Amino acid sequence: MKFRYLGNSGLKISEITYGNWLTHGSQIENDVATECVHAALDAGITTFDTADVYANTVAEQVLGDALRGQRRESLEIFTKVYFPTGPSGPNDTGLSRKHIMESVNASLKRLQTDYVDLYQAHRFDYETPLEETMQAFADVVRSGKALYIGVSEWTAEQLRAGHALAKELGFQLISNQPQYNMLWRVIEPEVVPASEELGISQIVWSPIAQGALTGKYLPGEPFPEGSRASDSEGGAWFIERYLNEDILEAVQKLKPIAEDHDLTLAQLAIAWVLQNPNVASALVGASRPGQIASNVAAAGVTLDSAAMESIDAVVGHLAQDDPALTTSPEERLT
Question: Whole-model pTM above 0.90?
Answer without folding.
Answer: yes
